[in-house]
Amino acid sequence: MILDTLVQAAQSRVATDKITMPDQAMAQMALDTPIREGFLFEQALGAPGMSFIAEVKKASPSKGMISFDYPYLDIAQDYQLAGAAAISVLTEPTQFLGSDTHLRDIAAHVALPILRKDFTIDAYQIYQARVLGASAVLLICSILGDAQLKEYLRLADSLGLSCLVETHSAQEVERAVEAGARVIGVNNRDLSSFAVDTSLSAGLRSLVPEDVLFVWESGVTSPTQAAEAVRARADVVLVGEYLMRAQDRRAALRELRSAALDEMATPMGQQSLCPAVKICGISRGEDLPVLNSCLPEYVGFVFAPHSRRHVELSTAAHLRCGLDPRILTVGVFVDAPVSQIVAAVQSDAISIVQLHGQESESYVAGLREVLPGVPVINAHPIVDGDSFAEALSVNGDYLLFDGPEPGSGQAMDWSLLDDIRHYPDLPGFFLAGGLNVDNLSSAMNLGVYCVDVSSGVETGGVKDPAKVQQFISAVRAVHHPRRPS
Q1: 166 forms bridges with which residues in the sheet?
Q2: Which pLDDT score is estimated for 325?
Q3: Which of 122-131, 296-305, 325-334, 437-446 has the lowest mean pLDDT?
Q4: Distance between CA 429 and CA 123 in Å, rounded?
Q5: Which DSSP symbol is given to 298?
Q6: Which of 221, 271, 419, 472 has the most crowded CB, counting CB atoms within 10 A?
Q7: What's 325's DSSP letter?
Q8: Tens of pLDDT along 148-190?
Q9: Is 206 left (phi over 0), alpha (psi -120 to 50) or beta?
Q10: Quick one: 307 exposed, middle or buried, by C-beta within 10 A (0-12, 13-18, 19+)?
Q11: 68 CB contacts (<8 Å, ≥6 apart)?
Q12: The dihedral of CA 61, 62, 63, 66: what is its sign?
């Protein structure tokens, strides 16, 4: 079997490495390597929403050569720019044509946590991963006994490394849980035949405790399958070949992330998920540190010229560069020329359009024609039952319900949304207007997909970092029980 061959190759490689660098010397080198506190791999994967581990892989036993030129640094940097939570780097050299050098170089040039993807059969490799710059190692249940699994988890913990414990059956999931794994993956690819069956992850998800991160490994080859992973309540998707073969790796990863968010906005996708958070009206570089720390799903730039939060496109583009790539940016427009919206999207300042004026159906249709695939949020001030009914008639990817005077911080009468219960198939909606930590619980009880706040996290007309942090923490503390603290 291929797996047996890979294990034997790993054993041979470790024996050779130990001649060059004996066990004790490698262990001492690992201990001398500064440990990054806080298990960064788990922190990154535990961010709200669906997280993606993007894989850097030259070849595989089942698919042969995937990337002939293999610019691995460029690939890793593309993943970082497209919002990957972490990067998986193949270091297995015989079948996957990986190299320790690839991992070392990527760790030196990319800020994301890195998983060393290899066949770990000796404690030596865990010390080695620490020295190479990895933040996590792969432990495969099918090639490790219970005692080894527990030993390697303890050793990795002592070195500040996380472990992705890979399973393929109910028995292996139970072993991983018993061993104390904090990140458990189900590989949909059979390591003997290399056939893929995504029903495996879906079927085993319920065996993984809610406070353990669940990783869907292999089998995501389209945005549709990213949505399938959301429906299966995966926390993380590990995807490699699909991205490696894409002509535009950044666009491919962004499409997967968008598909996951779209699915989370559906009634089925909202089950067991906290609302997303949008912090709107960002206009200053001083706002960025707290946003990058708290990671709201969305940040909004207001391009409406008469708003006190108005930003020029050049400013928004500059701020976008300073934001964590995992945060999606929304451009807020009021009856703007389509050419202005196109320029904002093409500049990469925004990836989602929010319409806050009197834009007609034909306007939206024309916008979709020139910007295919760019999500559109249709915003509507709700002042009475008629305005609610009118909002439901507009064709948008998302609806946003706002107060009677958008941008004023004035809340709507939320009882006007009571009729939502008559629309069980209505996609999730954004709720804006007067939100703050004091009324947040009532707002979330409406079944909202995303809470959208601006003035509620401001002091003196500018974003207050303490209020931003408090608001986001309040959302996630109440409605996101399965993420590790």
Answers
A1: 140, 185
A2: 83
A3: 437-446
A4: 49
A5: E
A6: 472
A7: T
A8: 999 999 999 999 999 999 999 999 999 999 999 999 999 988 7
A9: alpha
A10: middle
A11: none
A12: negative
DSSP conformation class of 422: G
Residue linked to tokens 């009468």: 413
- Show which residues are catalytic: 55, 57, 117, 166, 187, 217-218
Type of residue at 17? D
What DSSP element (H or E) covers 236?
strand 236-239
Assign 3-class secondary structure to 102-151.
HHHHHHHHCCCCEEEECCCCCHHHHHHHHHHCCCEEEEEHHHCCHHHHHH
**Cα–Cα distance list, 42 to 229, 311, 484 (Å):** 19, 35, 8
Q: pTM for this structure?
A: 0.71
What span, in angstroms and rounded, lies between the C-alpha atoms of 350 and 75?
Answer: 22
What distance lies between CA 400 and its chain's CA centroid?
23
Residue 326 vs residues 249, 297, 330, 472: alpha-carbon distances, Å: 15, 8, 13, 16
> For 420-475, what is each residue's pLDDT tens digit?
655 555 556 788 888 888 888 777 777 678 889 999 999 999 999 999 999 999 88
Say which residue, 481 or 87, is predicted with more confidence.
87
The C-alpha atoms of residue 87 and residue 60 are separated, in whole angstroms, by 17
